[in-house]
Design goal:
Pfam families: YhdP. The chain is mainly β. It is built from 6 helices and 37 strands. The chain has a domain at about 370-380 and about 400-565.
């Protein structure tokens, strides 16, 4: 500081002084007065500062700021002769020349006026700092003076015309306008908050309210997030139109997410010509597990991509580049899927493996829950699977797909096959084409549904080629079986189908052929009403080959029934 001041009758009076404060030039003048009850000090300040060069803000924030702000202020200090000191400060400025590329609501172009007013009233123990930015943003805070400056409580209110009252307990409340959460996370990842706690102490109880938060390719509406310390970490509560959940961020244990309700329907931009499933992560870059915690997820009611899934549980552990899933569960109420597995996220050797069970009492109800119709009705289902492939979990790669699937269906009915999702699944083994041919050849028999007691099968997949040879469909009046292979990469098949009318057919004949278990409707039996032509047939054999979209079905054997001796 440089300049002159004079001493007149016990009072001090300065001329304009110049100084440097926070690496910025400062103009100062002051005066003192001996009052009847207190010694009074008055200070006038003004400057034109560049916020990015004060060495106070984090580097990530400095990089987003440019320009300067002209400001002026007044400081009044009372030093009572028989009491503690008090003081007040008022600062006024305009951010018209400041350009900010920080996330909204702190983004601002240069040339846009934004008046700022800050007031301080305090003593030697504490002070209250209040103010406003523009006409609609007000803030109120209380600070404690001790060995370290401590923020006791504070509130920021956007879209507010008056000063909000302080929170009832220690903490920070942020009532913000709509925000882009991804931009804020990116700023924090650059270290925007790393040096904030160096000179002061801040409360750990934080509440954020916003009418809309954009995060994870979804808008979260009417959202409230509360973070508070616990004996073993931090508890975060989130409530809004799309979520009602808590997250216990435990210090020496897996994080625990208890989700009462979640609706997640991200809007992911599709790349041209890309028909692969979208990643559940909001980035196309390689996912890095570094810093990920082990987690336990318990969701009572979960919706994804507009579809209700019901209850979802999972335990996730991270080891290097491997994510391990245990106790995975999806329970819709109509079906129950369990899963264990791992995802090795190594770009040179990426691999996904999953195994578990799929259970349900009615396969048609389970399928209709997801908006899919199936020709199989009233049948219970029990599937064991063990699969692995060399891509991400949401990108099963046919060329590297390997594994085995065991399937068992209980008593049910196969009705008419329609188009849609069910038809697409049945087309995998050309069952729809085979059924049309049987209906054409034996229209009296196949005019109505077919009832069966059970379907049992095993299918194994080797490098994208699916094989089956031990499946048996036990129909009430007949058995139909298929065996062979389907190349999932080339999308062609080579199958053999056998129809054996009447359940009196020998077990050796019925068990010698297999049906693919994947689609659940790969085999058909004769109808419950045997037609005149059908009743004269003992065995039908078909060969099915060619592309899945246009298979060729050829009858290779029609063995007549032997008449019983009179």
């Amino acid at each position: 500081m440089s300049g002159k001041f004079s001493f007149i009758n016990g009072d001090l009076q300065s001329e304009p002084l110049t100084a440097s404060w926070f690496n910025q030039p400062l103009n100062v003048d002051f005066s003192t007065k001996e009052g009847a009850k207190a010694y009074q000090v008055a200070v006038n300040l003004n400057g034109n500062w560049q916020p990015a060069k004060t060495s106070v803000l984090p580097e990530a924030v400095n990089e987003a700021l440019s320009g300067s702000v002209a400001w002026d202020g007044k400081v009044g200090i009372d030093l009572p002769y028989h009491a503690g000191a008090t003081y007040n400060v008022e600062l006024n400025g305009d951010l018209n020349n400041v350009s900010s590329h920080l996330p909204s609501p702190l983004a601002k172009p240069a040339g846009e006026p934004l008046a700022v007013n800050v007031k301080v009233d305090g003593n030697l123990n504490s002070f209250e700092l209040t103010g406003q930015a523009g006409a609609d943003n007000h803030f109120n805070s209380r600070w404690l003076l001790g060995q370290k400056l401590t923020l006791d409580r504070a509130i920021w209110a956007a879209d507010s015309k008056t000063l909000p009252p302080l929170p009832e307990q220690s903490g920070v409340e942020l009532n913000m306008p709509p925000m882009n959460g991804a931009e804020w996370l990116a700023l924090f990842q650059k270290g925007a908050a790393e040096s904030v706690g160096g000179a002061a102490s801040f409360p750990q109880h934080i509440t954020l309210r916003t009418p809309m938060l954009s995060l994870g390719n979804q808008q979260w509406n009417n959202l409230s997030i509360v973070s508070q310390p616990t004996a073993n970490g931090t508890l975060v509560e989130a409530q809004g139109r799309e979520i009602n959940a808590t997250l216990a961020m435990r210090n020496n244990a897996p994080w625990l997410a208890n989700i009462k309700y979640l609706y997640y329907n991200p809007s992911v931009a599709k790349t041209r010509g890309d028909s692969t499933p979208s990643s559940p992560f909001p980035t196309t870059e390689r996912i890095n597990f570094r810093g990920w915690p082990d987690a336990q997820i318990r969701c009572t009611e979960c919706w994804f991509w507009g579809q209700k899934f019901g209850r979802i549980d999972s335990d996730i552990t991270i080891s290097g580049d491997t994510l391990t899933l245990t106790n995975g569960l999806i329970d819709t109420g109509f079906s129950r899927l369990t899963a264990d597995g791992e995802w090795v996220n190594n770009p040179e050797n990426e691999r996904t493996s999953l195994k578990g069970k799929l259970r349900g009492q009615k396969i048609d109800a389970a399928a209709e829950f997801f908006g899919v119709t199936t020709p199989i009705r009233q049948s219970s289902f029990n599937v064991d699977y063990d699969l692995h492939w060399r891509k991400a979990p949401w990108q099963p790669d046919e060329a590297t797909l390997n594994g085995i699937i065991h399937t068992q269906l209980g008593k049910g009915e196969i009705t008419e096959i329609n188009t849609g999702h069910a038809g697409q699944l049945l087309r995998l083994l050309s069952v729809d084409a085979l059924m049309r041919k049987l209906r054409f050849d034996f229209r009296d028999t196949f005019g109505e549904g077919f009832y069966f007691d059970s379907i049992r099968s095993t299918a194994w997949i080797k490098d994208g080629v699916m094989h089956t040879d031990d499946t048996l469909v036990d129909g009430l009046e007949a058995d139909i079986a298929m065996k062979g292979s389907v190349n999932l990469v080339r999308r062609d098949l080579n199958m053999e189908a056998v129809v054996a009318p009447e359940i009196s057919a020998t077990v050796g004949v019925a068990a010698a052929f297999a049906v693919n278990p994947i689609v659940g409707a790969a085999v058909f039996a004769a109808s419950k009403v045997l037609g005149p032509l059908w009743s004269k047939v003992s065995i039908l054999r078909y060969h099915i080959s060619g592309p899945l979209d246009d298979p060729q079905i050829n009858e290779v054997l029609r063995q007549p029934r032997k008449e019983k001796a009179q």
